[in-house]
Design brief:
Layout lengths: L2 H6 L8 H17 L4 H21 L3 H10 L8 H11 L14 H13 L5 H8 L10 H12 L7 H9 L5 H18 L6 H16 L4
Helix pairs in contact: 2-4, 3-4, 3-8, 4-7, 4-8, 5-6, 6-7, 7-8, 8-10, 9-10
The structure holds fe (ii) ion (2 copies).
């Protein structure tokens, strides 16, 4: 399997019956959770498939990638004010007024709330869900797979930035693919005159330092 097309068109791995059962259950539950947001539902299932394909390409567990994709936007069911009040109830501290970072909160809330409902989902999946909006200084391969799949899944429009990332699939390492996606996300925020969370700048500096130490381009 090579390239973006191979990632999109991949065959489903040979999952166990237990794995298939949980995938089907989570997909069914997500359809209820996002019943009023069909676009978000389609995006989530598309990310799940894209993440599974990227995982197969880059030697990451495709089952965990598939689960992370299904679950990552679960809390998008809550609109702006509700995700903020839920975050306050959970004591989530972003170091700034939560009103400023509302788009970042749904992954963190999901990672806090859903493990109790789905204890059979591996902890690594919840970490990937938690950092899919913010990234983090320490990104596991699974974290990177979900982050990238969220940005390049096939239902996303063919913007120059997204097309550039898609063209890199299979051509560069997972670390470099993630870096392009992460930096592209920051540029999107800057060009749109949107609020840039200071935590993102800190993460950028930490990741850039470790890339420079590793001798990456
Ligand atoms: Fe998201
Ligand atoms: Fe998403």
């Amino acid at each position: 399997m090579t390239g973006y097309k191979g990632v999109i068109d991949h065959a489903e791995p040979d999952y166990t019956t237990g794995q298939r059962t949980l995938i089907a259950r989570l997909e069914a539950d997500l359809k209820v959770q996002l019943a009023h947001k069909q676009h978000r539902l389609a995006h989530s299932l598309s990310v799940a498939s894209c993440a599974e394909g990227l995982a197969l390409l880059y030697g990451v567990d495709p089952y965990e990638a598939r689960l992370a994709g299904i679950l990552h936007d679960w809390e998008k069911a809550l609109d702006g004010e509700k995700i903020i009040s839920r975050s306050r109830e959970l004591g989530i501290d972003m170091g700034v007024d939560l009103e400023l970072v509302a788009p970042l909160l749904h992954g963190i809330v999901a990672a806090r709330e859903l493990p109790a409902r789905y204890p059979e989902v591996p902890p690594a999946v919840w970490h990937a869900v938690e950092v899919h909006t913010t990234a983090a200084a320490q990104m596991s391969p699974l974290d990177m797979v979900l982050f990238v799949a969220d940005g390049i899944e096939p239902l996303r429009p063919k913007t120059p930035g997204i097309e550039a990332s898609r063209a890199l699939v299979g051509e560069v390492s997972l670390e470099d693919l993630f870096w392009e996606s992460f930096v592209g996300g920051i540029i999107y925020v800057l060009k749109g005159s949107r609020y840039l969370w200071p935590g993102t700048i800190d993460t950028y500096n930490r990741l850039a330092a470790s890339r420079n130490r590793a001798g990456a381009r």
